[in-house]
Amino acid sequence: MKEKLIEFVLKIFAMISILITVAIVVLLLFEAKDFFKEVSFFDLFKGDSWNPLLSKPTYNIMTLIIGTIMIAVISCVIAIPLGLLIAVYLSEYASKKVRSFLKPILEILAFIPSVVYGFFALTFITPLLKTFIHSLEIYNALSAGIAIGIMIIPMIASLSEDALRSVPGSIKRGAYALGSTKYEVTAKVLIPAAKSGIISSFILAISRAIGETMVVAIASGSNPLLNVNPLKSVQTLTTYMANVSMGDVSYNSIEYKTIFVCGAILFFLTLILNIVARKIINKSKHKL
Q1: What is the DSSP-derived secondary structure letter of residue 250?
Q2: Using an 8 Å Cβ cutoff, are 270 and 72 in contact?
Q3: What's the DSSP call for residue 43?
Q4: 50-287 — its CATH code?
Q5: CA distance 220 to 235
Q6: pLDDT 10s digits, 20-72
Q7: Segment 249-255 long-range contacts (CB within 8 Å, at least 24 positions apart)
Q8: Inter-CA distances, 153 with 133, 156, 196, 201, Å
Q9: Taking the domains of the chain in order of start, what are their residue ranges?
Q10: What pLDDT is stored for residue 287 in this prediction?
Q11: How far is residue 274's CA from residue 208's CA, in Å, rounded to a whole number?
Q12: Residue 16 and which of 92, 99, 147, 265 are 20 to 30 A apart at CA?
C-alpha cells in the first residue's frame, strides 16, 4: 500500500506540471484568438514597425522577433564559449582550493538581480563600448546582449561542470592509460561523453536569454522599428509585454490582446528551441 500510495502521489505531481503547461497554452491561444478576429494573421508581417497603440496601428511582429533573436544571439556568443571553458577548468584543471574559491563566486553572479545587470549595461558597458564604437546609441542591443551573456555564464558553467563531473571515472582513467594528454581526454573523451548535459545547459541559458525582460528594457530601450543593427535600440517580445502591462491600456481592448499574441509567439519560440535541442541530444546519445 505504501509503494502504491507513493507512486500515486508522484503521478499527481507529475501531472500538475503538465496541466499547468496546458493551461498556459490554452489561455494564450484563447486570448490571442480574439485578436485575430480583428487583425488578419498576414497583417503581422506588414509594415516596418510594431505600433499597436497608434491611431493607425501597425503589427509587424518580425520587429519584436528579430530584436529578441538578435539579443539572444549576442548573449550566447558571449556566454556559451566562456561558460564551457570555465566548466572545463573547474572540472579538470582547477585544484580543490581554487575550485572551492571560484565556485561560490560564480554562484553569487547567478543570484544578482537582472535589474542590476541592466543598469550595469547602461552605465558601464555602453560608455565603454562607445569609446571604441562612436556610432553606438545610448540604448542599444549590443550592450544588452553582452550584459545578458554575462548573466547566464554561471548557469552554463555550473550545469556543464556537473555534466563533466558525472562522466564515470573509468572512462577518464582508460583514456589516460592509453597515453592521452589532459587536453585530449577533455576534448575527445569528457566533452563528447557529457554532450547531452552540456547541450541542455546551453538550451536553458538560451531560453533565459530569450525570456529576459529587465536587462533589455533598461539597456536596449524600446524602439519599435524594424532593425537588424545591434548598435541601435530594439524592442523585444518581453519588453513590449512589460510596457503594455503597466496599466496604460484598457482591459480587453485590441491593444491588450497583443500581449497574449506576443506571449504565444514567445512560448512557441522556446518550444521549437527545446524540440530541436531534444533531437540533438537524442542523436548524440545514440552515437555514444
Answers
A1: P
A2: no
A3: G
A4: 1.10.3720.10
A5: 7
A6: 988 988 888 888 888 888 888 787 887 778 888 777 878 888 888 998 999 99
A7: 249/53, 254/35, 254/38, 254/39, 254/52, 254/57, 255/52, 255/53, 255/57
A8: 25, 5, 18, 10
A9: 2-38, 50-287
A10: 55
A11: 12
A12: 265
Give the phi and the psi of residue 51 in degrees, each rounded to 5. -140, 70
Cα 60 off chain centre by: 23
Long-range Cβ pairs for the range 260-265 (8 Å, 24+): 260/27, 260/28, 260/31, 260/32, 260/35, 261/32, 261/35, 261/44, 261/61, 262/61, 262/64, 262/237, 263/28, 263/32, 263/237, 264/28, 264/29, 264/32, 265/61, 265/64, 265/65, 265/237
Q: Record the pTM.
A: 0.86
Half-sphere exposure of 184 toward its Cβ, with a 13 Å CA cutoff? 9
Evaluate the CA torsion angle 106, 107, 110, 116 in order and state its sign.
Answer: negative
Q: Does residue 186 contact residue 209 with C-beta atoms inside 8 Å?
A: no
* Cβ atoms of 212 and 177 closer than 8 Å: no
CA distance 74 to 77: 5
Give the Cα separation of 60 and 243 in Å (integer): 17
Which residues 6+ apart lie within 8 Å of 228 measured at CB? 66, 70
How far apart are alpha carbons 83 and 216 in whole angstroms? 21
With a CB cutoff of 8 Å and minimum separation 6, the contacts of 58 are 46, 47, 48, 49, 50, 51, 52
Residue 77: predicted pLDDT:
93
> Residue 266's closest CA among 60, 52, 64?
64
Residue labelled with grid coordinates 512589460: 242
Could you tell me which residues come within 8 angstroms of residue 170 by beta carbon, excluding any fewer than 6 positions away?
Answer: none
DSSP state of 221: -
Length of the chain: 288
